[in-house]
Amino acid sequence: MTDDPRAEKRPSRERLVLAALLLAVFGAMLFAKALASGGLEQTAMFYVGIPALIAVTVVLTARPRSAVGLTLAVTTIGLALAGPLLDEGVVCLIMAAPLIYGVAALIAWIVSALTRPAWKHHHALVAVPLLAAALIEGVAGVSYLPRESAASATVMVDASPEAYAAALAAPPAYGPFDAVLLKTVPFPHPVSATGSGLEVGDRRLVRFNDRKSLGLGAEPTPRSMTLRVAESDIDTDAGRVVFEVTADSTLSRWMELQSATVVWHRVGDRTETTWTLDWARTYDPSWYFGPLQQHTTGLAAGYLADTFAAAAAGS
Fold first, then answer.
1. Mapping DSSP to helix (H, G, I), strand (E, B) and coil, where does residue 4 land?
2. Radius of gyration for the chain, computed over Cα atoms and rounded to the nearest angstrom
3. Are 184 and 211 in contact (CB under 8 A)?
4. Contact 208/224 with Cβ under 8 angstroms?
């Protein structure tokens, strides 16, 4: 029992640490809201700055055996609250989680190393300018990798070029994804399409499954994509059609899909077809979201190639 009655009224260090950690999480969320209001929610300032804020607060406030471990635990709490409080969807959180965890762990290691008296840990300073460079990507138009890109997929179709062109001109029957990543995350899935024809000006309206946000009280919202035939060159043995995206409420939250180009030609009694999706990256940092979006767009091109190949073979 202490001789100072005021000591019993003072909050314990554990409670102060807990309060600081909660303040770090909610401070990061307020920072996220501020970035969103300024149009910076897709920049590296968002995906690097927020975990950095959490990590620095945790390391400077708490003195655990493992600063990195505690930082990751607090980051997990922040991610769990991000969906309901920031109105984020499942796809966005899952895709960004590895980046957020990685940045949080790295910042925690750097700060904990720099706060130790041993000179041998000062090599952590090398990472500081690298993090500063990563932090500004996406702000004021800064991008270290090209934003424009394309992803392709080629398949052999057990049908003639005429049958393939007929299948491409009609609304397809969309099946489930085969790619594990597309099924697991889960990405938007096309459920139906209206419109037909391969003449310039012909349109398609593709409807996707509703978006289900994790926001408090959020209702499922419909999403779709409108495409227009911008170029068309078809003959008996080959063809090329370009579908231009004119409206998109499905993928526009995380990338800009610009067009889909379909090229096919006869190979014996079969048809070889290639789907190419042209897109632009809207998220930073580029070294993370660039390869990730390139891979998923390639999977989407493969899905479309397989879908229309099945339609042509079954016609």
1. coil
2. 25
3. no
4. yes
**Cβ atoms of residues 59 and 71 within 8 Å:** yes
Q: What is the DSSP letter of 220?
A: P
pTM tops 0.90, yes or no: no
Return per-residue pLDDT of the chain as tens, 315 residues.
445 555 445 555 555 555 666 666 666 666 665 655 655 544 545 555 555 566 556 555 555 566 677 777 777 767 766 665 555 556 677 788 888 888 888 877 777 777 766 555 556 566 667 767 666 666 666 777 888 999 999 999 999 999 999 999 999 999 999 998 888 887 899 999 999 999 999 999 999 998 876 555 667 789 999 999 999 999 999 999 999 999 999 988 789 999 999 999 999 999 999 999 999 998 888 888 899 999 999 999 999 999 999 999 986
Show the CA angle centred on residue 104, arms to residues 185 and 116, nearest 5°: 160
Structure-block tokens of residue 114: 């720099």
Give the tokens for residue 271: 């048809």
Sequence letter at residue 281: R
Q: Which residues contact 214 (CB under 8 A, 6 or more apart)?
A: 83, 84, 87, 88, 89, 90, 93
